Fold this sequence. Notes:
heterodimer, A: mainly alpha, 10 helices, 65% helix, B: alpha/beta, four-stranded mixed sheet, three-stranded mixed sheet, 22% helix, 24% strand
Amino acid sequence: MSPSVSDYLIRLGDDRLVLGHRLSEWCGHGPILEEDIALANIALDLIGQATLMLKLAAETEGKGRTEDELAYFRDTVDFRNVHLVEFPKGDYAFTIVRQFLFDVFSYHVLEELQKSSNTELAGIAAKGFKEARYHVRHSSEWVLRLGDGTAEGHARTQKALNELWRFTPEMFDADAIDREMAESGIGADLAAIKPKWETIVRDVLARATLTIPDDPPAMTGGRKGRHTEALGLMLAEMQSVARAYPGASW
Amino acid sequence: MNKRTQRSEGGRREKHAEDTEEILAILKEVKDPELPFIDIVELGIVRDVFREGDAVRVDITPTYSGCPAMQVIEREVGEVLAAHGYENAQVRTVYSPAWTTDWMSEATKQKFRDYGIAPPSGVAQHGGIAELVSLRRARVTVECPYCRSSNTAERSEFGSTACKSIHFCNSCHQPFDQFKSI
């Protein structure tokens, strides 16, 4: 099988592993109990999806690696997630805006991948798609509540959107691997997803009385292993136990 | 409809009932660790059972991608089969068709009520994303498992485990969980 398939699966898995880990930073720190539980649940879904995707990537690659080895024993330059997902959790508005921007993207990607010619990936996507429905509903409701709520909520949500918006084009920045996967019927067609994503995102942000900034796109490179300093710091912590005690299990 | 291909407990497709009946009966000893009153056959986690001589293969499917109970269930399936003399058992995880609460029988739903958890209501929804982000979406009334009142409110779609949401009964003033429709 083309090496592009395992590369593509690693991209899918890394977006969800890194975002799931960032979201798990809220566990025990949520603004209210229900949200603490909700964010931990969503983090669990994302890490679960990542586990299945990285397991399939490892099997497809055929080098004898496991999903845990991919998560814990790759260095920053080997991660293939977009920059959007790697920043620290920020305040609650930052987390909610980021989740919303990613959730709508992930919803459409998983919806497409249910039709993947790779039947294992199609099954994983069908499972994840049901979860993504709950994620979109959660984050969009909070964007509306925070954006169109109190003055402070609005200001913080607008600030988060201003900081994050320029990182969204990278999600649709298709390269040779993305195009090969879309053309072969294995992957999702990012060009087809972009207008659907924009329609929903612009609709919700407008109803939340938020203004989309007109900043130019930020530097990209996550899919090639060029990351911001945030990822290295996150991985140093996330991988520390697995690297200190290789092979440990409990 | 051919009796041998009709959907049975947990939405499985029966095709070789007589060979696997005994195995299924054994597998019913395995409960979901978070739902100790529900076995994995009626929950629909067991998708298929294959038997050839004393070799057995059990296909299971996760309820949620990150469900931590799956590892425990997989281990217990192996243990319970070994305890009944099936040492040569293999457990395989399958993802298609994706697990749904629509497979749950009315008898199983009653067990949820008896335990104080509202069962999934209606069928899992399949509207588009425009419906998901609309505040005008129709909300399904969830009946309180304690007093049967319909005067309840959803507190959060995410509860104590991935499969449950949190509700509050305005009649008997009890918080309760619902097993989410998915």
